[in-house]
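sorry to bug you again but im stuck and you know this stuff better than me. what follows is a protein written twice so to speak, once as letters and once as structure tokens for the fold. mainly i need to know what kind of three dimensional shape the backbone takes. anything you notice is useful, everything is just below:
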Amino acid sequence: MPGHADDGRHVTLSLDQIEQLCPVAKALSSPVRVRMLSLLGVRAMNVNELAEALSLPVSTAALNVRQLEAVGLIDTEIQPGIRGAMKLCSRRVESVSMSLVPRALEGFSALTIQLPIGGYSLAEHIRAECGMVSEHAWIGDANAPATFYHQDRFKAQMIWFRSGTLEYRFSLGDVDAELVDFIEFSMEISSNAPMYRKDYKSDIEVAVNGCLLGTWVSPGDYGGRRGRLNPPWWSDTASQFGLLKTWRVDASGSRLDGETISGVSLADLALNGREYIALSIGVREDATHVGGLNLFGEKFGDYPQGIVMRVGYKG
């Protein structure tokens, strides 16, 4: 069987071994084939014996044996029998493990920090329509930019505004900036239309340490069904959920959900000597599509998270 193996009996497959991992996973997805492996762990058996033990037609047992043999989980040997040749089956491996970390990232560590959507350090040029709510009630006054410095803003579970910028500040902790391999930021976000409109575009800019990673054109503001996490009191006619978007910066540039968005790289972020990493999210008042934005917290929308930073580093 392809993959890492210790004495051929223990096999480890990782995410970058797609051509090997997927067939093995498919073979192990069948309860019949799993029971076959269990029986063959006791002793070698021929196809007829497996069929009888599992109350299967011989043809069905033979088909499942071929699938296990094809991915290297069992060995077979043709031996003479009373009524002609028979296929003797034996289990080839004792364990199969699947690492969800690509081999290229083995030896790397990751720091994950989450801030509540109300845990921003700066709110600049906020324009109505704007506001925020907690899990239980409205916070401050609707359409009042001053609400963005309300003492209860840290409890916010949904925030919206037409234009403006929020800045979130994250610590690198004890991670040596020289060892950082990538930085990712993820959030649930959408445009902010009156009520909601799935075709309401908005040019949402994301910057890190003052470097613009790029502009995401949000397709719309989503409703029509309730957000999976929304509290019962939230109106059915209001915005309900967003899209989970992930921005990533590494040595080669910046990507949004895996697609290149700009050439801004880790070197441009100048991490050395900084007291914090600054993430800015906003909509410019002179943008082509001034469609505002909605941010969803861990108890609103579809995804149970706030603003998440993940840092990969050699460690």
